[in-house]
Structure formats: structure tokens, C-alpha cells
């Protein structure tokens, strides 16, 4: 019923967008003729109507070129390996110089991997960048099977094997846990494709440290409550009909509720920027919400297993994680250098939660470990924005280069 109710709402939003387009087209001749208020208010209102609702389609990465040295180099998206649940996507550059191969591991948290386009864009001049381009679970047929925690780890192992020896990992947010697991799996099996380094950014390695509201919510209810109240079945109109999912619209709604005033103010600002003809300011807000309101459903088993293992039982934090029924020991990681990055003002993954990875990876000598606490940034500022580009990224780049 949860998904069916949302579908009704989505259909109403589509009608609102259609009426917004009609109204906007009708008003356009008046705005082009130079009429001001209230015509510009009506035009801004129509634009707001055109933005009603969410989308389940991945936005484009929009990275067409990047400056490498003194020249602008074209960038081409190249699918390298794919499964029903995800694609290993390479941002290919036609350059002669060999650069360190970096796998950017994107979170499955209700948004598409395009949320990390800024991270990718920053990495591209100095690295051969790949990303885990996760698919929307509601578009994956039931016949493709399940996708749980171990399947996510499997994908990372397969992706790294496809990239070949000498690769590096940059895991952002939630997949810091799976990246550690994949590194341990590859270390224990002596897999030659094990990454030379992994950089874990704002990831929930040990949620017992300075619990945030997100962490407290996860332990406030038994796992059965999450399954009964937050898991839905994909309706028949979609390719994944019958698949059990944690809907992306539920996750986005939760994020919005955490900062409701900020989002209300953001849309109020957007309206007035549109009404006042402040195009650049309006476009910046629109671009943010184009991405924020593009949502991705998670396979139910992955969501429930992650909540149970990471946020309730602290399996990784206790070094009790298992993979395919066998124990995983983080102390087996001896050849993959470790860097952790945290944000001083992170209200999703608190300071100390990611750094806890160093206490688990005791098989690594001190010179193969590094930590950076970025002052003055929240969760998203750890991997995007001006401080990421100017202060955090140079450290990450040097860390990768020193272990290439």
C-alpha cells in the first residue's frame, strides 16, 4: 500500500507539472515583453509547479571535459562491466600518461551515484576514474535474484578485478563498510587485484561513537519494525514488479524532515530568484534539487541487512563481520593503505565513526595509515564543495600517489 499510495501522489505531481508548463508557456510572451510584477510572480509560480514531485531517472553526470595540465581533454562515459544491479562506469580520457586507477564507491542511500559528480570531477585531472553506477532496484526484474550486503561486496570485488591490479578505492559515506569488507575478502584470499589504498570518507564504521540522530533512529526500533513499516513492493507498472524495496522517496522524505526549515527556505529563495530574474542563483538551487529529488530504490535485503549489521549490531565495529557465512578479519588487511576523512560538523556520520577503521586494521603499519578531519564542513562538505577541492582533495591525491 505504501508504494501504491505514492504512485497516486506521483500521478498528481505529473498533472501539476503539465499544468505548470501550460501556464508558463502562456505567460512567457508577457515576461519577454518586459512586464514585471505580478507577471513575473505568475511565471515563477509556474516554474515551481513544473518542478513538482520526484523522478526515478538517473540524471546525467554532465562531465564532458576536464583540464589535464595545460589542455582541455574530452571525457567519455564508458560502461566497463555490468550486472542487473550496477555498472562499473569509467570516465575515459584520451591521454598518453598513465594515471592511478580509482574506483569511486557511491552509496546506496536513496540517490543515484551522480550525487558524486563533483567528487568525480575533482579526481579526474589526476586519476583514471571509475564509479559504481548503481541501478534503481525498482527497475530490476525479480528474476535477477536478491541483492544483499554480501552481493554489494561481491560487486566491489568484481569491479576491482575488472579494473586490474594497482587500483585504489575512494568510498563515500555508507559503503565505507562494504569497502572495508571487500578489502578484507581480497586480502584473505590473496587476490592480486586487492586495492593499493582505500580512502573512507564520512562512513559509519563504528556508530557507537557520538551517535547522531540517524544512528539513534536505527536503534530505536527492532529490525522487524523497519521491515513492516518501511519496505514496500514495486507495483506492476515497473520492470521490477513484485520486488521488495526500501523506496527512495521514503529515504528522501526522512532527509528532508531532518532539515525541513532549510528546504522550505531553499524553495522560497528559488521562487524569489525566479521572480526577480536572478537566473544564476535560481539555476544553482534548481541544479541541487534536480539531483536531490532524483531517487533510487534499494533492494529490501540490502537495506535491512545494513541496518541490522552496521547500525544495530555494530558487527564491523566489533570485528565480527561475516561474508558468505565465513568470518572476516580486518586485521588481514596488510597491503591496502588506509586513509579516513571526516567533517567537523557532520550530523549524519559523527567525528570518530570513520576513524575507527584504524583501530580495526591493526595489520597495517603506521606509515600506511592517514586521517584528516576537515574543519568547518558537514556531511556533504567532506566530498564536495570548495573546502573539499582546496583542502581535502590535495591530501587524498597525495595519499593515493604515495601508494601507487
From TrEMBL:
Top-rank taxon: Bacteria
Domain PHB de-polymerase C-terminal positions: 202-403
Pfam families: PHB_depo_C
Protein name: Polyhydroxyalkanoate depolymerase
Taxonomic source organism: Methylobacterium planeticum
Amino acid at each position: 500500500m505504501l508504494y501504491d499510495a505514492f504512485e497516486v501522489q506521483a500521478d498528481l505531481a505529473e498533472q501539476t507539472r503539465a499544468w505548470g508548463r501550460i501556464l508558463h508557456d502562456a505567460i512567457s510572451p508577457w515576461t519577454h515583453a518586459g512586464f514585471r510584477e505580478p507577471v513575473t510572480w505568475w511565471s515563477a509560480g509556474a516554474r515551481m509547479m513544473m518542478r513538482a514531485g520526484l523522478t526515478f531517472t538517473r540524471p546525467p553526470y554532465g562531465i564532458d571535459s576536464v583540464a589535464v595540465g595545460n589542455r582541455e581533454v574530452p571525457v567519455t562515459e564508458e560502461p566497463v562491466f555490468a550486472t542487473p544491479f550496477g555498472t562499473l562506469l569509467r570516465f575515459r580520457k584520451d591521454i598518453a600518461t598513465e594515471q592511478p586507477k580509482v574506483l569511486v564507491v557511491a552509496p546506496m542511500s536513496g540517490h543515484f551515484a551522480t550525487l558524486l559528480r563533483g567528487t568525480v570531477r575533482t579526481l579526474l585531472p589526476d586519476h583514471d576514474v571509475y564509479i559504481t553506477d548503481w541501478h534503481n532496484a525498482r527497475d530490476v526484474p525479480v528474476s535477477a535474484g536478491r541483492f544483499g550486503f554480501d552481493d554489494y561486496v561481491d560487486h566491489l570485488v568484481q569491479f576491482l578485478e575488472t579494473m586490474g591490479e594497482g587500483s585504489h578505492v575512494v568510498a563515500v559515506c555508507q559503503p565505507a563498510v562494504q569497502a572495508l569488507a571487500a578489502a578484507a575478502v581480497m586480502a584473505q584470499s590473496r587476490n592480486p587485484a586487492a586495492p593499493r589504498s582505500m580512502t573512507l570518507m564520512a562512513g559509519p564504521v563504528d556508530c557507537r561513537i557520538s551517535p547522531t540522530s540517524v544512528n539513534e533512529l536505527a536503534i530505536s526500533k527492532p529490525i522487524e519494525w523497519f521491515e513492516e513499516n518501511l519496505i514496500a513492493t514495486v507495483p506492476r507498472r515497473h520492470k521490477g514488479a513484485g520486488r521488495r524495496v526500501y523506496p527512495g522517496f521514503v529515504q528522501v522524505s526522512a532527509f528532508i524532515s531532518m532539515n525541513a526549515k532549510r528546504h522550505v527556505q531553499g524553495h522560497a529563495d528559488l521562487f524569489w530568484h525566479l521572480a526577480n530574474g536572478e537566473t544564476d542563483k535560481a539555476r544553482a538551487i534548481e541544479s541541487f534539487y534536480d539531483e536531490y529529488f532524483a531517487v533510487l530504490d534499494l533492494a529490501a535485503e540490502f537495506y535491512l541487512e545494513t541496518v541490522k549489521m552496521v547500525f544495530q549490531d555494530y558487527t564491523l565495529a566489533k570485528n565480527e563481520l561475516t561474508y558468505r557465512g565465513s568470518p572476516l578479519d580486518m586485521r588481514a588487511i596488510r597491503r591496502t593503505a588506509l586513509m579516513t576523512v571526516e567533517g567537523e560538523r557532520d550530523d549524519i556520520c559523527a567525528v570518530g565513526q570513520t576513524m575507527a577503521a584504524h583501530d580495526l586494521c591493526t595489520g597495517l603499519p603506521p606509515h600506511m595509515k592517514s586521517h584528516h578531519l576537515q574543519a568547518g564542513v558537514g556531511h556533504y562538505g567532506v566530498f564536495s564543495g570548495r573546502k573539499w577541492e582546496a583542502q581535502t582533495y590535495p591530501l587524498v591525491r597525495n595519499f593515493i600517489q604515495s601508494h601507487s
